[in-house]
Light-harvesting protein (Dankookia rubra), 60 residues
Amino acid sequence: MADIKGPSGLTEDEAREVNNLLMKGWAFSVFASMGAHILVWLWRPLVYGGQAVPPDWRFF
């Protein structure tokens, strides 16, 4: 039954492998994005002790 192709033209095992790779790629991109946001927050937080922006407006 593993050699029966579905509507996508993939066998069930191939479809599971593609799905597994897509889920791993999605998880990696989510965690990489979260890490990047945390690093930017540590570098330049948006809240500076009651002020909305840094007093000199120089971000870089």
User: Anything to note?
Assistant: Residues 12-43 form the longest helix (32 residues). The mean pLDDT is 82. The two ends are 60 Å apart (CA to CA). The chain is about 55% helix and 0% strand.
